[in-house]
Amino acid sequence: MAAHHPKWRNARRIVLVGAILIVTLAYGNHRWQQFLHARGIEQLSWQGLRFTSSGPVLRYLKLEQRQASGGRLQIIAEHSRLDWPTHDGQGWHLPQLRIARLDVAWQAPSIGAAPSSAGSPDPHSLAALPRHLAIDTFTARLPCANGRCLLQGSLQAQHAGPRLLPASLDLRLQHEGRQLSLDANLDGRAGFQELVMQARILLNGQARIRLSGILSSDDTEQTWRGELAMPGLPEAPWLRDWLGQWLEPWRTDASPALQAVGLEADWRLQWPRGPLELSRLRKMAQGEAHLRASLPEAWPAPGIGLLKGDLDLNLVGSAGKWLPRQLHADLHLTRPQGAWLEGVPEPLRPEALQLQIAPHPINTSSKAPHLPLSLRLHSQGPLRALLQGELNIAPQLPDWRVELKGGTLEIDAPRLQFSGNRLERLKVRLRMAGQLDHERLRLALGEGSRFSLGRLALAELLLEELQGQLAGLHLTAEPVGEGLRVSQLGGPLHLQTANLQHPRLHAQGWRWQGRLDGGDGHQQLGGMLQGERGLGMNLQLRRSSGGALAMEARLTEILLQAGNPLAATLSDWPARLELDKGRLQGSAHLYLSPGKPRQAELKLQSQGLSGIYERSELDGLSGRIQARLRGSHLELQLTELEVTHLNPGLPLGPLRLRGQYSASLAQPLRGRLAWQQAELALLDGRAWLPPSSRDLSTGSASLPLRLEGLQLGELFRLYPAEGLAGRGTLDGRLPLLVGPAGVRIEQGRLDNRGPGILQFRSERIRTFARSNPAMKLVADALENFHFSRLSSDLGYDEQGKLRMGLRLEGRNPALEKGRPIHFNINLEEDIPALLTSLQLSDRVSERIRQRVQQRLRKSPDAP
C-alpha cells in the first residue's frame, strides 16, 4: 500500500476540524436560540465588541423581551465596560460593570393578564452580580397614572461578594432641574441572622427622610425594629407634582407651604420564621407601632385623597389584628378618591371629610385596660352627615372589644338624584349604641331615631312629607374575610306620608306600622298599611337568600255602610258602580323568583253588597272571586256568585253565576269562558244558560239563552201599557250573539205553556173602534181573550230595537158564541228607551232617576 503524503494528511485534519467546528457552531447557535426563546427574548443584538487588557467593552447592546405575564421589556445599553474576573479569598468574582448610558422601556401587561409566578429572588444569587455597578446615566419609561412616565438619573451599587454584606446603594433621580437621591447601606452578620439598614432620601442635596431598621431572626421567629423620620419637607410642592404623575391623579389648586409635612414612626414587629412576604406579614405579625404625622396643608395620600391635619397613633397587634393603645387625630380629607368609594353611590360620595378623635380621661377604677375616646366625623357634599359619640376600646388580644356609647348620626341632604329617582329635604337623626369584637358587630337605635323626607319621586310614585320612626331597630353582623355579613336585622318600623300619588291611586296620606326582620340573605317586612280614606291591609313581604320575593296582603274587612274606601283609593274604580251596604274581604299573593314565571293570586269575598251599577239597582251581592296569574296566563274563578235583586227599571233576580275564564295577558278579552251555572229569575220564571264553554279568541260568542216559566201577569204588571192584563206561562229560547258591536238576537222564539187569558181594555181603542167595525171586533175580542196559542218570533239588534212577530189563537167566550179568532201582530220596541222611561218612574231609586236625568240633559237623544 502506498503511503499518503504528509500534506494530504494535514488537509484531512483541517477539513475534519473545520467540520467539527461548523457542527459545534450550528449546534451552539441552535441551543442559543432555544435559550432566548425560552426566556421570551425576541431580539438580542450588539455592536462594537472589543477586548482590552482590563476587560471586554461593548459599544451598543439591544434586548427586547416578551414577558410571560404579557408585558414587554426593552433595554438599550451604550458604552458598557466589564472588568475581567479576579480571584480572592472568596473565589472568582466580577469586580465592576460600568454603563455610560442605559435606556429601559417597560410596557405593563394588559388588564386581565395572568400575573407572573416568579418567586422571591434568592439573596445569594445576587453575589454573581459585579461587586460594583455604575450607571452614569439611565432613562426609564414606565407605566404610571398618566399612562407612561419618564425617570432619569444615575445609579451606584456595591456589595461584598458571596457574603453580600455590607452593601450600599446610591440612586439619584433628576426632574426639571431638581434632584432626589437615595443613599442606603445594609450590613449585618453572616447568614443574614441580623440585618442593619440605614437609608436617607435627599432632595437637592439636603437630607429630608431618614429610615433605619434592624431585622433579626432565630430558629423560631423574626423581629423587625425600625424608625422613620421626616421632620420637614420644604420641597413639598415640587415633590407632590412629580409624584402625582405616578400615583392616582389629584388636583393641586393650592401648594403646601414650606415645612408642610412632618412624619415620625417607630415599630417593633415579630412573626414566625418563614418567607418574608407582605401578605404573610400582614396576617401573622404582632407587636406595636407608633406613628406621629403633621400635615398643616393638604397633602396627597394615594388611594385616599388630599389629607391634612395631625395624627398621633400607637398600635398594638397580634396575628394581623391591630388596635390602638393611644389615638389622637384631627384630619381633614378633601377630594376623596380610591377603591373605598366604589361601594358608595355617586350622589352620596362626600366632597370632604373631617375626623376628630381625642382621648377621654381614663377611669382608674377599671381593672381591665381600655382606651376611652371621643369621636366626631363630619362629611360635606350633596349629603351632609355628622357622626358623634364615645368609643371605649379594650385592646386585649385576641379578645378585643370596641364599644360605642351615646352615638348620634345626623344627615341632611337638600336634594339627591339617583338615575331618575329624586329625593328632597332628607333629614335623619339616629341615636345609637353598639359593640364590635372579634366575633360580631352589634348596633341598636335608641329613642328619638327618626327621619323625614320632604319629597320622594320613584318612577310613577310620588311621596310627600314622608316620616319614619326607627327606634328599636338593631343590627348584628359577623366578620367574613375583609368584610361583614349581616346575620340579623330587625325591629319596629313606623312610616307615614302626608300625600302619596300614583296614576292608579287617588292622592291621600298613608301610614305603616310594622316590623322589619332579616339576616343571612333573607328579609321580611310585615305590618299594617292604612290609608287616610279608610282602606287598610295587613301586608307581609319576604325576600329569600336566593332572591325570590313573596308578598301577601289581606284587606281589613270593609263595612260599606261607613263608606267605600276602595272607590276613594283606586282611581280605576268604575265610576258607574256605587256600593253603600254589605261587607267585603280580600287577599292577594305575589311570588317572584329569578328565572321562574311570576305567580299571583287575588281573592275577593263579598257578603250582602248593595248599591247601583250604571242605571241599575243591585242588592244582596254575595260570592267569591278568585284570580290567578301564572307567567302570562290568567285564570278567573267565580264561586257561588249571587245577586238577590236587580232593578234596571223592572225587578229581576236572584242572579246566580258560577264559572271560569282563562286568557293570556297579551289578549285578555280573547280567552275561554266556561260556566256551570248562569241563571236569572225573571217574571216569576227564569232565564238560564245550560252548562257549557265558549272560545272567545275570535272576539264573538253565541250563548243559547233559555226562558222558562215567564208569567204574563207579572209582565203586564210591570209593562207601562194602559189596560193590559192577563195570565199565562211562556217558555222560549233566545240565541244571544255577543261581539264587539254589542248583543244581538237572531231567530228567537217564545211559546205559551198551556192556555191563558189576555185582557186589553183601553178607552182610546174603544173610541177609535166606534168608527171602524174591524177595530171594534179586535177590541171586543181582546177584552177577555182566552188563548190556546201565544207564540212569537223575536229579534234584537245592537241598537236596542226589539222586533216581535206575535201569533195569537183563541176566543172570547162572550163574543159570537166563542168562535175561534186568530191574530198576527208585529210589534217593535226600543228597549233602551223603554228602560229609560221605567227609570224615570217611581220604580227605581231617586239616585238612578238623577243619573238618567243628568244623562238626558247632556245628550237629549240618549236612550
Describe this structure in words.
- By secondary structure, this protein is mainly beta.
- It has a domain at 700-863.
- It has 9 helices and 48 strands.
- The strands form 2 sheets. It has a 6-stranded antiparallel β-barrel. A two-stranded antiparallel ribbon has the order 4-5.
- Helix 6 runs antiparallel to helix 7.
- The longest helix has 33 residues, at 6-38.
- The chain is elongated.
- Pfam families: YdbH-like.
List the helices and strands and how they pair.
Elements: H1 6-38, E1 41-51, E2 56-66, E3 72-82, E4 86-88, E5 91-93, E6 96-107, E7 132-144, E8 147-158, E9 167-175, E10 178-188, E11 194-203, E12 206-217, E13 221-230, H2 236-246, E14 262-272, H3 278-284, E15 286-301, E16 305-318, E17 321-334, E18 352-359, E19 371-380, E20 384-394, E21 401-418, E22 421-437, E23 441-445, E24 450-458, E25 461-469, E26 474-480, E27 483-502, E28 505-519, E29 522-531, E30 536-543, E31 549-555, E32 558-559, H4 565-569, E33 577-592, E34 599-613, E35 616-630, E36 633-647, E37 655-664, E38 667-682, E39 685-688, E40 692-695, E41 701-711, H5 712-718, E42 724-727, E43 729-739, E44 742-752, E45 756-760, H6 763-769, H7 773-782, E46 785-796, E47 801-811, E48 821-830, H8 831-839, H9 846-858
Parallel strand pairs: 6-7
Antiparallel strand pairs: 1-2, 2-3, 3-6, 4-5, 7-8, 8-9, 9-10, 10-11, 11-12, 12-13, 13-14, 14-15, 15-16, 16-17, 17-18, 18-19, 19-20, 20-21, 21-22, 22-23, 22-24, 23-26, 24-25, 25-27, 26-27, 27-28, 28-29, 29-30, 30-31, 31-33, 32-33, 33-34, 34-35, 35-36, 36-37, 37-38, 38-39, 38-40, 39-41, 41-43, ...
Helix pairs in contact: 6-7
